[in-house]
Specification:
The complex is a heterodimer of chains A (330) and B (419).
Chain A: H1 3-29, E1 41-42, E2 51-56, E3 68-72, E4 75-78, E5 87-91, E6 94-100, E7 107-112, E8 118-124, E9 127-133, E10 139-147, E11 158-166, E12 171-175, E13 180-183, E14 186-187, E15 194-201, E16 204-214, E17 217-224, E18 229-234, E19 238-242, E20 248-254, E21 261-267, E22 273-275, E23 287-288, E24 293-298, E25 301-306, E26 314-318, E27 320-325
Parallel strand pairs in A: 13-18
Antiparallel strand pairs in A: 1-26, 2-3, 2-27, 3-4, 5-6, 6-7, 7-8, 9-10, 10-11, 11-12, 13-14, 15-16, 16-17, 17-18, 19-20, 20-21, 21-22, 23-24, 24-25, 25-26
Chain B: H1 2-11, H2 14-23, H3 27-57, H4 62-71, H5 73-90, H6 93-114, H7 118-146, H8 152-180, H9 185-206, H10 223-228, H11 235-247, H12 252-262, H13 270-295, H14 297-316, H15 322-350, H16 356-385, H17 387-414
Helix pairs in contact in B: 3-6, 3-7, 3-8, 3-9, 4-7, 5-6, 5-7, 5-16, 6-7, 6-9, 7-15, 7-16, 8-13, 8-15, 11-16, 11-17, 13-14, 13-15, 14-15, 14-17, 16-17
Classes of the chains: A mainly beta (330), B mainly alpha (419).
Chain lengths: 330, 419
């Protein structure tokens, strides 16, 4: 090979090293850009009854997303602590904050106390999707999206992984994929099982509901942590969320296999369901403001709508997501 | 170039010549390996951080990313056959491969300049995939045409090992940059672009476009000649065997999921499965290639598929410990080392010089279609009759495929022209 091409290549390598190293060093030393911080703003009549924890969203500067705020009867309070969460939930003195690990390329969940101090931490294996905590603060659940990514050959299908965590010890109790499932009294298993959207039963944190996705169906399952078991209740229910009194479940109802959903509410006793007045497609695990009112995120804002099917959606908080009911809610 | 190298070897003391002749691979293959190494660093850097960039900096939902990622995989298969034939017809393997590498490099530049919308990132990922589809067949043809026929498997082994080193380094470099400069995805994209440019530079400055075995005269091949490969007396049996073997081979992603169902390991261990398999592949690719050149590519290819029986056997065990898991992953790495590169080397030896890229393009497409069928079938069986029974079916299918493939492959090699 001619030495001319060798010299050109050598020169090119030198130039690339200079540019690359220079750029990375400039980026590493550069200003943090944390000049202003997103601050949720509140609206609407439902505020008087609202006592929420939310995560701030700043559409103009996504790097500042995720700080935790408390909304109490129209007052917006920045909660102390450095938590930056993609999803947050809190109940019974303990919370879960799912976010980016300090490395910047991994995800982690932090378990925090009532002062928002992290007490435990565990690694997440994908994008934060859903977080829930049982009313007594005993158990928590996280759902992440996992991509089956592989270098050697890559059928990249998105799937979900949901774990139950003992929030006192920070230990993983189990992954829902490893629980036994029954359908119509018989064992039920398939390669494409995915679970997401756990909601714990108020007053009995050993029991929960969740979604089981398989073969195009989205089953509502009722689970038992002690028995490590679940049973299928009915089809067409995603991201269930129990009302504070435990009698109703609000859920996402998929519109004909699309990636669009309508919110519906079902009766836990009869499993019969009805629509609510929100007609936009909502992709969120809905929270209950109280036993009569739902609160959920749409875009970068939080809205409320009555659970009984009446009324209409109302803007509650601008620039916020991941609403968490604080207090008893009734 | 090859002659210079050969004469240099003659000048060396005999003992040294004999030792070095074991690993001696043409300079062109090393250079193509370097191109792939640099390009893989570049692509894997981006692939590692792209999901996070989309979700945290652009506010996309993870499902949107899944859609972006999945959309363009199908398109690559068709592109491979077309780019393979075109590079044969124009006798410009280097330039067509360069177009593929160039498109991917352009994609990285575009990411730096305009990657701030979800649609824009989608388009850039599409361009990258098409670039990968374009470059694979002419690049493999160049490796084949640069190598003596009795050294083909070693050449492919060396190339694949270098390629996978790049795939391992890419994520590490990306992590390193983000550790130094948290959330500065632009720095990752800039460095990735530089690696892509360097890969392109090595291709154009150091890779010989008309290597030793490249056809220099005769009419350019017609499409009919490429189509006739499907009926070729030595290549058609190879295609048939490749199709059967790939259908009977469960994809590694499904094997990992299966292992996870069998063993209750921490989810955090999951990425380590890929790493262990890749390390085992990296370590074995070169020695296995040398072995294939010494004892024959067909026996090594069959032995590689036989390693899958070990993997299937471990999937059938009721309780799998960490030792069995390690054995399984080493076997899986050995399976990859003894199959993809060796199969391409076998094709390179059978195909006429003027149809190398066309034939390799067809082979890659057949194998990737076979894998698709395999994944769909295994998933459906798992769903219908459970993991254990599905594995039993695939043990039988692999046995059958090997029984059918073995005589086909041996015959293909026997009746190959000047093989």
């Amino acid at each position: 090979m001619g030495s001319r091409s060798g010299r050109i290549l050598f020169g090119l390598v030198a130039v690339c090293i200079l540019i690359g190293a220079g750029y990375v060093i400039a980026a590493a030393l550069g200003p943090d850009e944390t000049t202003t911080e997103a601050r949720p703003q509140t609206y609407g009549a439902a505020l008087a009854r609202a006592h929420l924890m939310v995560r701030a969203v700043d559409p103009a500067n996504p790097r500042l997303n995720g700080r935790v705020y408390e909304i109490d009867g129209g007052k917006v309070k920045r909660r102390s602590g450095d938590l930056a969460c993609e999803r947050v939930y809190y109940a019974g003195g303990r919370g879960i904050c799912m976010g980016v690990a300090p490395s910047g390329v991994d995800y982690r969940a932090q378990i925090f106390d009532s002062e928002l101090r992290p007490i435990h931490e565990f690694a997440l294996t994908g994008f934060p999707s859903r977080a829930r905590v049982s009313a007594d603060g005993r158990y928590g659940s996280t759902t992440v999206f996992v991509s089956g990514d592989s270098y050697l050959q890559a059928p990249s299908a998105f799937s979900t992984r949901t774990v139950i965590v003992d929030l006192r010890s920070g230990e993983r109790v189990g992954q829902l994929e490893q629980f036994d499932v029954t359908k119509d009294g018989r064992p039920f298993d398939a390669v494409d099982f995915n679970f997401w959207g756990v909601t714990f039963v108020p007053g009995d944190s050993n029991r929960f509901y969740a979604t089981l996705g398989t073969g195009g169906s989205h089953y509502l399952v009722e689970g038992d942590i002690g028995d490590r078991s679940m049973r299928v209740l009915r089809d067409g229910v995603e991201c269930p969320s129990l009302s504070p009194d435990g009698t109703q479940i609000v859920f996402k109802s998929r519109i004909e296999e699309s990636e669009r959903w309508r919110l519906r509410v079902l009766d836990v006793e009869t499993l019969a369901d009805h629509a609510v007045a929100e007609t936009r497609s909502i992709d969120d695990q809905v929270e209950w403001l109280d036993n009569e009112t739902l609160v959920y995120s749409y875009g970068d804002d939080l809205f409320t709508v009555p659970a009984d099917g009446g009324g209409s959606p109302q803007l509650l908080v601008r620039d916020a997501s991941s609403p968490v009911r604080l207090g008893t809610g009734s | 170039m090859y002659q210079v190298e050969a004469s240099k070897a003659l000048l060396k003391p005999r003992l040294w010549a004999r030792q070095s002749s074991r690993l001696r691979v043409p300079r062109n293959v090393i250079m193509l390996g370097a191109v792939s190494l640099l390009t893989d660093i570049s692509s894997e850097m981006v692939a590692t951080v792209l999901p996070m960039y989309l979700v945290f900096s652009l506010g996309a939902s993870p499902l949107a990313f899944g859609a972006i990622d999945g959309t363009y995989r199908g398109a690559a298969a068709l592109v491979q056959v077309l780019s393979g034939f075109t590079s044969d017809r124009w006798r410009r393997h280097k330039e067509v491969a360069g177009l593929g590498y160039g498109l991917s490099a352009l994609g990285k530049v575009a990411l730096v300049a305009a990657g701030n919308t979800i649609g824009g990132v989608g388009a850039i990922v599409a361009v990258d995939r098409v670039g990968k589809g374009i470059r694979t067949a002419p690049r493999d043809a160049l490796i084949s045409l640069s190598s003596a026929k009795d050294r083909l498997a070693t050449s492919f082994g060396v190339h694949r090992a270098m390629d996978s080193v790049g795939a391992m380094l890419g994520p590490l470099i990306a992590f390193g940059i983000l550790l130094l400069a948290p959330a500065r995805f632009d720095a990752v994209f800039v460095v990735s672009t530089l690696f892509a440019v360097l890969g392109l530079a090595v291709l154009f400055l150091n890779v010989e476009g008309k290597p030793r075995r490249a056809p220099r005269d005769g009419a350019p091949p017609r499409p009919r000649a490429a189509l006739a490969l499907l009926k070729d007396r030595s290549f058609a049996p190879l295609l048939l065997a490749a199709a059967g073997l790939s259908i009977a081979s469960v994809s590694d992603a499904l094997i990992y999921v299966g292992l996870q169902r069998t063993i209750d390991f921490e989810p955090a261990v999951f990425p380590l499965l890929y790493v262990m398999t890749a390390v085992s592949f990296m370590a074995l690719a070169i020695p296995v290639g040398q072995l294939a050149d010494r004892v024959g590519k067909v026996p090594v290819l069959l032995a590689g598929h036989a390693l899958l029986f070990v993997v299937y056997g471990i999937l059938l065990m009721t309780s799998v410990g960490y030792l069995a898991l390690a054995v399984c992953l080493v076997a899986l790495g050995g399976y990859f080392a003894a199959t993809e590169g060796v199969m391409t080397a076998l094709a390179g030896g059978l195909l006429p010089e003027k149809l190398q890229a066309s034939g390799i393009g067809i082979l890659i497409t057949v194998v990737s279609l076979g894998r698709l069928v395999s994944s769909l079938a295994f998933g459906a069986l798992w769903f219908a009759i459970g993991l254990q029974s599905a594995v039993v079916v695939f043990v039988a299918a692999l046995g059958l495929a090997m029984a059918v493939a073995a005589p086909l492959l041996f015959r293909a090699q026997r009746i190959a022209p000047n093989g």
